[in-house]
Structure formats: C-alpha cells, structure tokens
Design goal:
Elements (H helix, E strand, L loop, with lengths): L36 H5 L5 H14 L4 H13 L1 E4 L7 H12 L4 H7 L10 E5 L3 H7 L7 E5 L9 H13 L4 E5 L2 H5 L3 H15 L3 E5 L8 H13 L4 E3 L11 H18 L4 E3 L7 H14 L12 E3 L2 H14 L12
Parallel strand pairs: 1-2, 1-8, 2-3, 3-4, 4-5, 5-6, 6-7
Length: 341
C-alpha cells in the first residue's frame, strides 16, 4: 500500500444541496485500463498498521450537536436504500421508494430548516425482478434504481447468464448495477480472469454505473482486498463495494482503509476518481459518521457526495432519523415512529 497520509481533523461539512436529476452522471465514468499484473502483485498490506489506523476513527474523531445533525443529513443523501430479502414484494418496494423520496419526517425537516435542500437518498437498491416497480415509483424524483446482478450474492451462476442478467436490469431501467465478483479468482490469484470478468460486466452495463462487490469478508487477507480493488478499477468499475451484506463479515473499517487507499492510488495513477460503497451491517448513525470521517480523511470532501460515496443499508435510516429527532426535541423516540416500510 502507499504510505500513510497524515490524518486530517474531521471538521463538519455543510449539508448537501439538492442534487440534479442524474446523480450518477455527475461522476466521470471510469474508463479502466490494461491489467498491470506486476503492479497488482506488488501490492502488500501491513494488517497491524491498517488496524491501528482504523481504530483511530471512532475514538479520536467526533462531531456533536448541529454539526452532527448536518453530517447525518449528508449521510442520508449517500444511502443506497436497500431491500434484498427473499420475501420482498412490490408493496414493500413501493413503500421503500416513498421513504427514499422523503427520508426524514416533514416535522423534523421543518424544525431543522432544511426543506429547501430537497434531501433524498442516493439510490434504491433491489433485486432484478423488482426493478420495474422501483423505476415507476421513483419516476421524476431523480433517484436512480440500482439492481444487484450477476447471480447475487454468490456470483456462481453461469457466466453468460450473469451477463444477460446485467443487460436485462439495464433494459428494465436500472441506472446502476451492483455486480458480484467470482471470489475464487481472488483466492487462487487468477487476476487475469478477475479482470476479464469485471471488464465484461462493465461492457454489459452500458451507460449504467457499475459497482463491483468484492465480498471482502470472503477474500481471506487484506492484501487480497487491495489487489482485487485495483483489478476491479483497472477493469472499469465505477465503484468498489465491500460486501453483499450476506457474508459473515461485511463492512468493517480496516477493509475501508485498504479500499480507500487503493482508490487514492488509482486516482494518482490514472486521474480517474472511483467511488466507494461500504455495505452490510451498517445500522447505527454512529457507524455512518465513522464512514464519513474515513472518506474525508482518506480521500477528501469530493468523496462526501453520492456521486462517489454510498452507504448500502436498510435499517440505518431509522436510527439516523431518531438521532435527528433527539437533536430537535432532546428526546429519543421509539423506533416505530420512524418506520421504513
């Protein structure tokens, strides 16, 4: 990995303004490049150093009061509001999309004085079968629909079938595609196969932005995480994403440190800014703040917007809304006052 950059004190960032209709299009597409196998194999990660760095984020960086409220509102704009359950129905997705349009209760929006900002989530993420329902429900909102694809979550269906699934989701109206890689390519060190696979997914995605899910909890080592991140970006991934949310270990800060360092190295190497999406197990507002602080310190303010940062979550929004109510009233409300669906 590249040398550690001196930490930057996490100062509050102003609340995000309303975004234009095509948020994903705000970011320049990552064109990718040829696989530099020598550079990939040269990547090494010092696990103890990464864990020490990650440990400083929740213990040394805090934001309070109105600054915390501002950061939490920013976090909302970066959420990929997600439902990926076996019992998903069109009705569930319709309610989720309604929440995506108005993620904070109107009385809290008025009390915070942020009605003019048009706050909404970064995207709604669903299975392919429910893409048409979500697209129709979000019409005119400017909120893109993201579809999980390529045999999510295991990624072990036949390769041609995975490509067809990507194309079908794009044809159904998905503007973002979350693909899963074949973990075996990483575990056996077949970087050429991983590159070819992600490159094919990128081409099948067409104009839709593609997020490559690395399933880092199944990659065995942080060095593998670093190498897989670099290969996915060289293959043209617009985002790299930690997890499907279905692994035993999902989004954790040490992995975030490694992946953001790789994004920074890729930017230095190519000039292309690639987005980052931690997903899985992010349920508390405090965790969202930790990820925002990580992005600010490792990559800078440009990565505090939905064009380059997303939080994959389903229940996170409930806790953020509770924290905002506490800021407004001084009291915590019951979770049932902030229903998701």
């Amino acid at each position: 990995m590249t040398a550690t950059r001196s930490p930057v004190t996490a100062r509050p960032t102003p609340v995000a303004p309303a975004y234009p209709a095509s948020r994903a299009a705000d970011a320049t597409r990552n064109a990718g490049g040829p696989l530099d196998l020598e550079a990939v194999l040269a990547l090494r990660v010092n696990r103890s150093a990464v864990e020490r760095r990650a440990a400083t984020i929740p213990t040394r960086r805090t934001v309070k009061k109105e600054w915390q409220a501002a950061w939490l509102l920013r976090a909302i704009t970066c959420i990929d509001l997600t439902t990926l359950q076996g019992d998903d129905t069109p009705g569930n997705v319709l309610r989720l999309c309604a929440k995506a349009r108005r993620p904070v209760r109107p009385d809290l929006v008025d009390a915070l004085g942020v009605g003019h900002l048009g706050i909404k989530v970064g995207a709604v993420c669903v299975y392919h079968a429910l893409v048409p329902t979500a697209v129709k429900a979000l019409e005119g909102s400017g909120i893109p629909v993201a579809a999980v694809s390529t045999g999510f979550p295991a990624g072990l269906s036949p390769f041609r079938q995975r490509l067809d699934e990507v194309r079908a989701s794009v044809d159904a109206g998905a503007r973002e595609i979350d693909v899963v890689i074949t973990r075996a390519h990483v575990l056996i060190g077949n970087w050429e196969a991983l590159y070819d696979e992600v490159r094919a997914f990128r081409e099948a995605s067409g104009e839709a932005h593609m997020k490559a899910i690395l399933a880092t909890g199944e990659l065995a080592t942080l060095t593998n995480v670093a190498r897989a991140s670099m290969v996915a970006m060289l293959a043209g991934a617009d985002f790299i994403k930690t997890s499907t949310g279905k692994e035993p270990v999902n989004a954790v800060l040490p992995v975030g440190v490694v992946m953001t360092r790789m994004i920074r190295e890729y930017l230095d190497r190519t000039g292309h800014a690639v987005g980052f999406k931690p997903a899985g197990g992010i349920r508390a507002a405090k965790q969202a703040l930790e990820w925002l602080i990580l992005m600010k310190e490792e990559l800078g303010d440009r990565w505090l917007r939905p064009a380059l940062f997303r939080l994959g979550a389903s229940s996170l929004l409930t806790d953020i809304e509770r924290q905002l109510e506490h800021f407004v009233t001084g009291r915590y409300s019951a979770a049932h006052r902030h229903p998701m669906v």
